[in-house]
Amino acid sequence: HACSYCIIPFRRGIERSRRVGEIVAHVRSLALQGVKEVTLLGQIVDRYGKDIPDGPDLSDLLRIVHDVAEETGLERIRFLTSHPNWMTDKLLDTVAALPRVMPHIEVPVQAGNDEVLANMKRGYTVEQYRRLIDRIRARISGVAINSDIIVGFCGETEQQFMDTYNLLSELKLDKVHLARYSPRHNTVSARNMEDDVPKEEKKRRHAVLEELHAHVSAEINSRFLGDTLPILVEDRY
């Protein structure tokens, strides 16, 4: 799967799933060194194992790594980044069932308009994404859902941008990573589409979504007022 704006397939080549034994050995080594949290990382991480005949999928891998975590004291497991087309109920149920796998799903939408999504070659509609968010929340208690958005993609109109704004306002996702579109050499969008949204307009749209999400984030975080929660300290200064 290659989105029309994405340079990664040109830089990294075809997908290759790392072998389970290598992952397990790496996780065990990190845990024995005192690491508290690991993240299983892939460009489309929920496609893990698709290139290995009869191999494990991401759900199977999470269960294996979870066993290692219980043996070694590793506290938290995460994975990212997922693609909506490959997010299965089996994977969601696995996250819900394993206490050391954090209830955290990173699933980018990129835009809230079907025409823009088609131009991006994302492979789903806004309604399909909306239903996916409903499925995630129904299956995983207390889940945090993060997403990515690109503003100012080729040909994006003001109304199409507002569709994205309205979708984010509706879904109230926990975190949104925002980016302004810029063409990457050799990608489909750079070759075949005009980068026709002015830079200043991209900045404005970016700022509008930042302000929206600041309000959403404050609303979500207000639910934790008065609670005592565990945190991960990454460094000392």
Structural class: alpha/beta
Strand content: 5-15%
Q: Can you tell me the overall shape?
A: globular
Q: What order do the strands of the largest sheet run in, or round the barrel if closed? A: 3-4-5
- Measured distance between first and last alpha carbons: 42 Å
Largest beta-sheet characterization: 3 strands, parallel
Number of strands: 5
Proportion in helices? 40-55%
Tally of alpha and pi helices: 9
Average pLDDT figure: 96
* Cα-atom radius of gyration: 19 Å
Order of helices and strands: HHEHEHEHHEHEHH
Low-confidence residue ranges: none
Task: Describe the protein.
The protein is built from nine helices and five strands. The strands form two sheets. Strands 3-4-5 form a three-stranded parallel beta sheet, with helices on one face. The model has no long low-confidence stretch (mean pLDDT 96). The relative contact order is 0.12. Helix 3 links the parallel strand 1 (37-41) and strand 2. The protein has 237 residues and is an alpha/beta fold. Helix 2 (20-32) runs parallel beside helix 3 and helix 7 (158-171) packs parallel to helix 9.
Features of this protein?
single chain; 237 residues; alpha/beta; 3-stranded parallel sheet; two-stranded parallel sheet; 9 helices; 11% strand; globular
